[in-house]
Amino acid sequence: MPRIPFPEPVAVWLFNGQPDLGMRLIRDVHDGLAALHRYGIENLKNDGCPCREWRVARSALDEALREPTLENVSAARTALIDAAARVGALAATDGHGIFIMRREPFAT
Q1: pLDDT tens digit string along 73-106?
Q2: How confident is the model at residue 23 (pLDDT cuts 50, 70, 90)?
Q3: Do residues 106 and 86 touch, judged by C-beta distance below 8 A?
Q4: Three-class SS string for 59-103?
Q5: Measuring CA to CA, which residue among 100, 62, 102, 67 is closest to residue 79?
């Protein structure tokens, strides 16, 4: 199956809370699905039960795989950003992979 690229990559910290260890650019839907199990995002699955942001991201990414329209792929990217932001793994960039600032996790 061909890779389905995001309109712009999503930058996440490789190890949440340790920005000096680097970040990764998630460039497509396949990497987005894999990211749901990495970078601290997997911690949204409390006691094996995914929280809302994780479920929404999984559903949107699955839909983008089935129907790779620009609307679905953009929605999947947005849902992945929401999940990464929820755990503080989101790293803001200038759109070219250049780090700008660290975003703090949402309060729980």
Answers
A1: 999 999 999 888 887 777 765 554 444 434 444 4
A2: confident
A3: yes
A4: HHHHHHHHCCCHHHHHHHHHHHHHHHHHCCCEEEECCCCCEEEEC
A5: 62
